[in-house]
Known about the structure:
This protein is α+β, with helices and mostly antiparallel strands. It contains 9 helices and 8 strands. It has a domain of about 170 residues. Strand 4 and strand 5 form a beta hairpin. Helix 1 runs antiparallel to helix 4. It is globular and about 50 Å long. The N and C termini lie far apart (about 45 Å).
Amino acid sequence: MQPHEKSIEEAILAKAKELGMSLAGIASIRDLKASRSYDIYDKRPFYEEYKGVKWQEEHKSVLVFALSHPRSEPVLDWWSMKVPGFTPGNRILRRQSRQMRTWLGEELGINALSLPYQIEYGGCFLKDASVLAGLGVIGKNNLLVTPEFGTRVRLRGIFMEAELEPTGPIDFDPCNGCDMPCHKVCPRKAFGSGKFERELCKQETDLRDATMEMLDGEIMGIEVPSLVSKYCRKCEFACPVGQPES
Ligand code: B12
Ligand code: SF4
Ligand code: SF4
């Protein structure tokens, strides 16, 4: 390679930036398959529809990317069955995913698959993929913590039919020495045992589903009014990483 020539990985990450992805990285499918969420989830899936993962031999790498989700833009995360992709944030991520997949095929000749959000419909564990791709690490709030945006990001993935060099993991240890405000703030005491208990967090999710609000289409970026769930983000907001001092 000439000194000025970009590697395939660099070209993909540059395209990610051009498409407006807030963060992006590459992990190998081999490492993703071996990540612990698959083991745990096979024994105890969250959704009944999950029947295990059918890996395709030709998928060698995963591109995982993040959308910054600041407190000032709460709507990005609001959930409605009428919004394509369910949330305005997912709608942006889906568009970026489509654009990237098309570009990979047309410019680099790499076949790619835009992944759905849900594991049971073919999605992958996005936090594990993000750690392996070097976007951040799993914090004590059980979420991805990135140096740039802390935990305030939403994720998406694309499988690629090309063996690429992983861009992670990174050396980053934000929880060391932190007095864990993320644990104290949980309204359900989901971290009461010292580790995340998803059943307790789910109780909060269920409550939010039971108290949906009817909102104007304009707010959600659609034509019609719809019922909207606003899910809890307290353990996300409590984390100081990547936030200005004040
Ligand atoms: C099902 C689901 C839920 C369920 C169950 C959650 C659970 N963790 O089991 C419920 C509804 C309760 C939920 C709640 C929330 N969720 Co949720 N959820 C998902 C979903 C669809 C799958 C997650 C899953 O089942 N993982 C499998 C289990 C086994 O993993 P886990 O226990 O959480 O964590 C494992 C990894 O961290 C791994 N791990 C730990 N250390 C390391 C180190 C390495 C090197 C590796 C490889 C792996 C690894 O091991 C852990 C198991 O011990 C993902 C989307 C996706 N496709 O990935 C979003 C997702 C994880 N959720 C997300 C968010 C934001 C939330 C909420 C804040 C609610 C909200 N406002 O959206 C809360 C936060 C709860 C919390 N503190 O974890 C984001 C996370 C973004 C981020 N910064 O990390 C995701 C990625 C969706 C998105 N839109 O981007 N969620
Ligand atoms: S609040 Fe502290 S302990 Fe919790 S995830 Fe953030 S850095 Fe880690
Ligand atoms: S999302 Fe809310 S209920 Fe769930 S673990 Fe975080 S703070 Fe607790």
